[in-house]
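ARCHIVE CARD
Drawer: 12
Card no.: 0347
Subject: one protein chain, sequence and derived structure
Cross-reference: see card 0346
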Amino acid sequence: MGSFDPLRTRLPWSAPLSDEQPAIAALTTEDIRELRLPWLSRFNVDSLTAHLHANPGLSFWVPRTGEYIIAEMWRRRDDIGNIVEVTARKGRAALVRTLLDTLRATGNRLVLMPDEVWSDRARLYGEMGFGPVEKIVFFHKDLKSTGALETAGPLPQLDYSLATPHDLETLLNVDHNSFPWLWWNSPEDMANYLRMDGVSAYLARKDDKPVGYASFTMYNGWAHLDRLAVVESAQGRKYGAAQLSHVMGIMVSHGADYVGLSTQENNFQSHRLYNGFGFKQTRDSMKIYGLSLREP
């Protein structure tokens, strides 16, 4: 016990002392008002209620102290969990282990956590086996500058169509044949994405065969390129460049002054593509950490 702990226990507003082996329970909507949500929490009562309804059985707490862990399914997948927020002192490791046991029991292969969770207790998570999985970097481009839409050379001709929910299966097939396993979209996530305000997704075909898709979201005066996919069998033919040129023209017609995007730090092929179109990498970055749940 630290030197301030005896005094802390006598303060009328203090929480009970944390325990390394606490009694843990599933967090339900009825328990939310008993939590001590910190000022910097991403949740309030209403948003946490909605989160628990959408992600049942993936959050836990210590009723005696109000410590908690909140998780979700990554991209609405059924094989990857994601730790969203942890507020705990000595009970943190026990809460994380409870979540890991739950995810293993339901067949999950991996659990992830964002930078802000990792940095809060990096040493502890490292000792538990978590480590870096991906580093995400960001690019942007001014679409109103002179020659912003010009290309360095001729691009292949593709046929484009605005995707609708009826194209969901085709989009998913292209998606899973274009990206690494970690970045696959689930049917639920893709369907929800297509329904979002400001989202446009364009399927690209060559000789009536789907070879890629590009999707973006329009905001107030700017656009975000969300996905740029080319199926593995068609890569290396400038189909990504052709799609990028196509959707940037649409972004400008919708009033975008600039476009932003993110990609993996080690995806050098995409870096070359974006640099070739005049995108500039920003100083911002984001790391994702994770732990494999498969037996060694």
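Annotation on reverse: Residues 1-13 have pLDDT under 50 and may be disordered. The CA atoms of residues 135 and 195 lie 28 Å apart.
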